[in-house]
Amino acid sequence: MPQMSAIDRNTAAPERPALAALEQEVLRGALMKMHLIRKFEEAAEASYVRGLIHGTMHLSIGQEASAVGSILPLRIDDYILSTHRGHGHCIAKGADPARMLAEFFGKETGYCHGRGGSMHIADIEGGNLGANGIVAGGLPIAVGVGMSIKAQKQDRVCMVFFGDGATNEGAFHESLNMASIWKLPIVFVCENNKYAMSMDIALSMAVRNVTDRASAYAMPAVAVDGNDLPEVAAAARAAVARARSGGGPALVECKTYRIRGHSKSDRNLYRTKEEIETWREADPISRLETEVLTHQRFTRPELAAIEKAAQQRIDEALEFAKASPDPDSAELTRDVYAD
Amino acid sequence: MPTELAAPEVATRELSYAEAIREALAQAMEADERVFLFGEDVGVYGGAFGVSGDLLQRFGPERVIDTPISELGLAGAAVGAALTGMKPVLEIQFSDFVTLAMEQIVNQAAKIHFMFGGKASVPMVVRLPGGSGTGAAGQHSQSLEAWFAHVPGLKVVQPSTPHDAKGLLLAAIDDPNPVLVFEHKLLYKTKGPVPAEPYRVPIGSAAVRRAGRDITIVAASIMTLRALAAARRLAAEGIETEVVDLRSLRPIDFATIAKSVRKTHRLLIVYEGVKTMGIGAEISAMIAESEVFEFLETPIARLGGADVPIPYNPMLEKASVPQEDDIVAAARRLVLEGIA
Questions:
Q1: CATH number, domain at B38?
Q2: What integer pLDDT is reported at residue B1 of this predicted model?
Q3: Which residues of B are catalytic?
Q4: Among A49, B111, B117, B152, who pairs with A112 as Cys (CB 3.0-4.6 Å)?
Q5: Do B20 and B160 reside in the same domain of the chain?
Q6: Do A140 and B75 make contact, defined as CB atoms within 8 angstroms?
Q7: Is the pLDDT of residue B218 over 80?
Q8: Are residues B75 and B167 in the same domain?
Q9: Has residue B2 got a pLDDT over 70?
């Protein structure tokens, strides 16, 4: 649709700066990716419940704004490192949901040829250096990526995602310290969803905010509403720009919430239904849609079309995954070593 | 008389094991700007054992990097740098400290190539000074190489000579996989012929250091030197010993071991790591599972580290790992009495 002028929008209040900073096509892309992530995870969950896939998965439903907003200012040649709850990061960085779902199904056509599964999807060509099954596993790797970027005199940035639980690991502290002393081009994005599996951050952290920990490493840090895509994008944009221009690392804490349990074994014994309902009302996708409707950036039919296109893409991805061949067990030990 | 095998290359001069490693690092950094060395005290200090020496002065602080004491972070940094186009060489100051870095080496470095479907590789090298004999006691004297030889995706080498220290390190730096180089602290000052030009000792190839017909001793690292000294004494008694220097634990050169055992019909395995569940158990089992088993005239014998943390007292420390006298006695028992 054609770009509307501010006058045409004819709204009661002007757009807040974080939303105004998002150009129409950028906003459309962000909405599409949030829907893709949501539909992807719903499809994965449904496939699991129906016994079509095995293993486990960690769903990020409710955290889509954190993934999409953080990655919005990145270039295709920038790097990300992700977590066990990493489908959103992967899709946000541009991965093909069909090859992701094929990996879920353990198929040869998956990103890892069925060798990695949900927790190890990497899209090397797209700059995604991998999800990680170890809490805080990606943080030290990010330090090395930062060293590599600097040594090769590139203007790339490495963004590393981790949860609140990871900040209690030694790897977090070692990594922030090294990134800071060497002024590495790294953006640390903490997706603080309040619980490390069942452990409440109020009980596990001696400080109130993850950002409080950055001061020990002389690192700028900002906490944002992680369910607010424009705010997340604004914070990430500033951190990425700083890192890219040689200013060194920064930390962004996205305060968010996972609507689903930690994994498939979770019986929600550590939180109340009321709490979950409260956060459901702060759903990042519907929040953004309401706001863009208010400001007439999109019409209802346009938003419905975006959602429908996302659903269609995931439906096709699911068919591709189901129809794909399993790996050949004669190739069991393939790729243990590089040649 | 048994023959001492000549060094495989023309020797132009003698270097110490530490100097040979330093030369390998320097030549690798000269040849390839992606190579860099980092670790605790590798720069200004020149390395806790003096291995890096003047490399900081020669290559500058961007390629010889002093780091905080953060082994886990450093191992992960090696993974990240290797994933994105660099060839990091990480020095773990004492191999014992690798316990702090296990996560990144075992869960990340070893598995990335496989788990990512072959689409990324991790060409990193970790140098680890190990072994007992310095009076440093239980947390600075271990031989942990077998742990890593247990992990698919890693390669593990243990040079015993200055020649191999240089050649294996250059091969490790070339390798597209994570390679752990277990150096031995007592070997750093030992000297031997080292060619001046860069060369590679293939990873996965053992070396027959001495030919003999009565017994095969398979040894690794410093135990190769002790086995050779023992072999000279045994020769005086008329026992001719073949000494196979493993050099690589993973991949292991079983063909060379099997060929030797076929010839001598007796096998003694000598290693410094704890004997229980160690590399000797693996080699014994490989022989037992192979057609070479029927060539054996005696049981297989193993000499390894005692089931004890390395003690501080020098007498106890010596008693905790195989010494030359132990090797002589074990070989004699096997050849003359047929018992392990």
A1: 3.40.50.970
A2: 42
A3: 71, 140
A4: B117
A5: yes
A6: yes
A7: yes
A8: yes
A9: no
Report angle CA A64, A140, B97 to the nearest 5 degrees: 150
Question: B66: part of which helix (H) or strand (E)?
Answer: strand B64-66
Residue B200 is assigned to a structural domain of this protein: no
* pLDDT digit string, tens, across residues B140-181: 999 999 999 999 999 999 999 999 999 999 999 999 999 999
In this structure, the number of other CB atoms found within 10 A of the CB of residue A95 comes to 23
Residues in chain A predicted with pLDDT less than 70, given as ranges, are 1-12
Q: By the 8 A CB rule, do B143 and B131 touch?
A: yes
Using an 8 Å Cβ cutoff, are B29 and B63 in contact? yes
Residues in chain A within 8 Å Cβ distance of B73: 139-140, 143, 171, 174-175, 177-178
Domain interval for residue B65: 14-193
Do residues B27 and B150 both lie within one domain? yes
The predicted structure's pLDDT at residue A12: 65
Per-residue pLDDT reduced to its tens digit, A273-302:
999 999 999 999 999 999 999 999 999 999
Confidence check: pLDDT of B206 > 60: yes
Q: Quote the pLDDT of residue B3.
A: 47
Judge if B72 and B108 occupy the same domain: yes
Cα separation, A107 vs B331, whole angstroms: 54
Query: What number of other Cβ atoms are within 10 A of residue B53's Cβ?
Result: 18
Q: How many domains does chain B have?
A: 2
How far does the CA of residue A113 sit from the closest CA of chain B (Å)? 5
Would B4 be classed as within a structural domain? no
Q: Hey, how many other C-beta atoms are within 10 angstroms of the C-beta on A287?
A: 16
Per-residue pLDDT of B277-310, as tens digits, reads 999 999 999 999 999 999 999 999 999 999 999 9
Q: Omega of the bond prior to B251 within 30 degrees of 0, cis? A: yes
Is A171 within 8 Å of B118 when comparing Cβ atoms?
Answer: no
* Whether residue B280 sits in one domain with residue B159: no
The closest of B106, B124, B209, B208 to B169, measured between CA atoms, is B124
Strands A186-192 and A195-196 come out as unpaired
Considering only the beta carbons, identify the residue of A130, A143, A335 that sits closest to B76: A143
What homologous superfamily does CATH list for A34-320?
A: Thiamin diphosphate (ThDP)-binding fold, Pyr/PP domains (3.40.50.970)
Q: Is residue B185 a part of any domain in this protein?
A: yes
Does residue B150 sit in the same domain as residue B181?
yes
Among A121, A139, A174, pick the best mutation site for testing chain B contact (most B Cβ within 10 A): A174
B162 and B31 housed in the same domain: yes
Is residue B101 within 8 Å of residue B72, measured between CB atoms? yes
Joined tokens for residue A129: 């250096």
Q: Given A144, A152, A334, which is nearest B80 (Cβ)? A: A144
Q: What is the pLDDT of residue B164?
A: 98
